[in-house]
Amino acid sequence: MSRLKGKVVLITGASSGIGEACARRFASHGSDLVLVARRRERLESSKTSLEKEYGVRVLVETLDVRDRQAVNAFGDRLQVENRVPDVLVNNAGLASGLSPIFEGDPEDWDRMIDTNVKGLLNVSHRIIPMMVARDSGHIINIGSIAGHIVYPLGNVYNATKFAVRALNEAMNIELVGTKIRVSCVDPGVTATEFSAVRFHGDRAKAEAVYKGFKPLTGDDIADAICYVASVPDHVNVLDMIVMPTAQRSPYVLHRDE
């Protein structure tokens, strides 16, 4: 029997990409889900599909992780309804823009910092106390290889993912002595809506990112996340870097074309 069966898993940014793939993968293991994102219609579609296919309970909520007041209110609701997550997947995140710092758009900077760093902090700050009170839980932060090696024009996005890596390590240190585990999964090039968002909807630029090699998919990262979540309780995977075979670092990527 899967160690994930019957667990309550909260996934942020669950309406597409890695978050949506995680929802399906955890549901296939028998986990009940709490799915949050900004796009309600997509969440409702996932809820209907997953409940029908896997027979799990799925709660969906329209939530912007940047809105601290809304995050706190949602956490209060989970506590009252006794849906304290066993696993928190801090997946909500994005890249916006690709340019030198001196040519960057400060609105892009704010969007990345507010989502990737403050959003993760908002959710973690509300959920972790519930885990501490119960002395159990697993926080899985979604980082990036961009949090290990800086690449040209990635500047602020790199900075946010370095921050995620630092916060992951800080959470681990601060939760020593509890049974709460903290892990980070750091993907390389993964074909999701990521590049379309980065290039503000320019599909041609987004598609060019994945030309000439086979990138990772959301399902690949969901597999890694579920592995990290399902190891025995005495095992903690601090950090896992996952890249497509064609990629060996942000600077080394083989393309056939």
Explained architecture:
- The protein has 8 helices and 11 strands.
- It starts with 7 loop residues before the first strand and ends with a strand.
- The protein is α/β, with parallel strands linked by helices.
- Helix 5 links the parallel strand 5 (137-142) and strand 6 (180-187).
- A 7-stranded parallel sheet has the order 3-2-1-4-5-6-9, sandwiched between helices.
- Helix 1 (17-28) packs parallel to helix 2, helix 1 (17-28) packs across helix 8 (218-230) and helix 3 (68-80) runs parallel beside helix 4.
Q: How many individual β-strands?
A: 11
**What radius of gyration results from the CA coordinates?**
18 Å
Strand percent estimate:
15-25%
Task: Give the H and E element order.
Answer: EHEHEHEHEHEEHHEHEEE
- State the helicity in percent bands: 40-55%
Strand order of the largest sheet: 3-2-1-4-5-6-9
How would you state the average pLDDT, rounded? Answer: 96
Quick description:
This protein has eight helices and eleven strands.
How would you summarize the topology of this molecule?
Elements: E1 8-12, H1 17-28, E2 32-37, H2 40-54, E3 58-62, H3 68-80, E4 87-90, H4 106-134, E5 137-142, H5 155-174, E6 180-187, E7 190-191, H6 194-198, H7 203-208, E8 216-217, H8 218-230, E9 239-242, E10 247-249, E11 252-253
Parallel strand pairs: 1-2, 1-4, 2-3, 4-5, 5-6, 6-9, 7-8
Antiparallel strand pairs: 10-11
Helix pairs in contact: 1-2, 1-8, 3-4, 4-5
